[in-house]
Amino acid sequence: MQLIQIDKARYRKHLNRVIVGCAAGLAVGSLAISQTLIALFPDESGSHFHWNLTGVVITSLAIGWLLNKYRTHSFMTEVVYVWELKQSLNKITRKMPKLKAAGREGNADALLAIHYSYAGSRLLWQLDDNTITMDELAIKQAELDSVAAKYNLTLNADDYNESILKQF
User: Fold this and answer.
1) Do residues 12 and 38 touch, judged by C-beta distance below 8 A?
2) Which residues contact 13 (CB under 8 A, 6 or more apart)?
3) What is the pLDDT of residues 36-84, one digit of tens each?
């Protein structure tokens, strides 16, 4: 997955609309379904937990289906990209101890994966205005650059491919 610069304002605007739409859809849909089920199949004990849960589950599945169906729509471009980037970075994070150990030994693929992780994290943190940890990331990036220089490697996030993680 290539790192691309995206329009922060458009991303935030679309993400907020998707979140509000999902929350409103979940509230309205689950209430409508559960109230319909309660009206059709009343429980004499007064407990309608199972109908309420059924309404939430059905509505959640419907929202998930809609998000998946419209994931290729131009409105969702930035939202889906960030979601996929977060998944990609999570895969690297789970292997980070092994990657760092191999990186200290000069493994170019490990250093590339770490570099991609840092570059992707920087992009996400800028989009979410999470600048508090940027200084810490800069220190880690400097350490990574010194290791890469020690082994005479040039790291470019565009060269990263998720398949290199299989060896770790």
Assistant:
1) no
2) none
3) 999 999 878 878 999 999 999 999 999 999 999 999 999 999 999 999 9
Phi, psi of 106 (to 5 degrees): 95, 15
Closest C-alpha among 41, 168, 53 to residue 111: 168
Helix axes 108-127, 96-104, angle to 10 degrees: 130
Please report, for residues 23, 35, 37, the alpha-carbon distance to residue 61 in angstroms, rounded to integers and kept in the order given. 13, 18, 17
- The first and second tokens of residue 38, run together, are 């309660």
* Residues 92-151 pLDDT 10s: 999 999 999 999 998 999 999 999 999 999 999 889 888 788 888 999 999 999 999 999
**What is the value of pTM for the model shown?**
0.83
Nearest one of 22, 166, 26, 142 to 83, comparing CA atoms: 22
Query: Vertex 47, ends 45 and 49: CA angle to 5°?
Result: 155
